[in-house]
Amino acid sequence: MHRRAIASLGLEVRKVNWFSTYRVHHRVTGHYRRGRVLLAGDAAHVHSPAGGQGMNTGIGDAVNLGWKLADVVRGRAPAALLDSYESERIAFARKLVETTDRVFSFVTAQGNFADFVRTRIAPLFASLAYGIEPVRETLFRVLSQTAIQYRDSALSEGSAGRVHGGDRLPWTGLDGPDNHAPLDARWQAHVYGTPPPALEAWCATATLPLRRFDWSAACGAAGLQEHALYLLRPDGHVALADQAADPQVLRRWFATRGMRPGAAGLA
Q1: CATH annotation of 157-256
Q2: Which element (helix H / strand E) includes 249?
Q3: Domain 2-108 is in which class?
Q4: pLDDT in tens, 238-264
């Protein structure tokens, strides 16, 4: 296959001073944490470069682990919080390895039929699919990894609108308020509409920033619910979604996990 690739470029290789053979490895560690040892990025998973997902995945690991380490070190959460790092990240790593393995196998498959599918069928199908808005949006969310959610995590609770605990906070800034602008790698609460006075008082006492946004059609289109409470983790994922915006529900979320509310996080 490499000879055909070089020939197609109209090149003639007369001398090779150095070369290496690339072998694809597909591995995911059995555990992301063992005591005081934590793995992230390429130390936790290696896979084909197909799709360009390696860097984003490593950054995602670091962000997920970083805020948890910060809260534990500052005494705002028990060490058990670090166990959620593996449970949230390892499932995605396994899925990523499986997906990139399939893509790499397709790209490197040899034979006339494989060449025909790769050079004739796949480009046509991709062009048609990319012209469909929902498909284009889905591809963007998958490749950018903004579709990653942790609904099964022990840190995720509740739902309001179409947003569940564990989901990444949907962005409303295209036609409404930019609700991602205040995200600063710290804990905070969001209300799209009017927060109850009791919630405002509790957040003030707990030093938990409460961000209020005027309700708009863009908020509803994004899946948010008017007047509901969304507790945001430092990594931008929803920890708690509560339709009633009840401060006691918020208090219990922290208490049952042995965590202290407040603005602490990565920053």
Answers
A1: 3.40.30.120
A2: helix 247-256
A3: alpha beta
A4: 999 999 999 999 999 999 999 998 765
Question: How far, in Å, CA of 186 to CA of 246, rounded?
Answer: 21
Angle, alpha carbons 148-258-256 (nearest 5°): 75
> Distances from the Cα of 104 to the Cαs of 18, 23, 97, in angstroms?
25, 11, 10
Q: Which residues pair with 237 in a beta bridge?
A: 168
State mean pLDDT over 81-89.
Answer: 95
Q: Is the pTM of this model over 0.85?
A: no
Confidence at 179, pLDDT banded by 50, 70, 90: very high
Q: Which are the contacts of 192, defined by CB distance < 8 A and separation ≥ 6?
A: 172, 179, 213, 214, 215, 219, 224, 225, 226, 227, 228, 230
Q: Tell me the per-residue pLDDT of 18-60, one tens digit each, with 9 for 90 and over.
A: 888 767 677 788 999 999 999 998 888 876 665 566 678 889 9
Indicate the domain borders of the chain: 2-108, 157-256
Mean pLDDT, range 161-177, rounded to an integer: 94
137 vs 144: CA distance, rounded Å: 10
Other CB atoms within 10 A of residue 35 CB: 7
What does the longest C-alpha to C-alpha distance in the chain come to?
78
Chain centroid, CA 16 distance in Å? 43
Which residues have CB under 8 Å from 212's CB, separation 6+?
A: 190, 191, 193, 194, 195
Among 55, 49, 47, 51, CA closest to 25: 47
Q: How far is CA 115 from CA 70, 77, 110, in A?
A: 50, 55, 7
**Contact at 8 Å (CB) between 41 and 57?**
yes
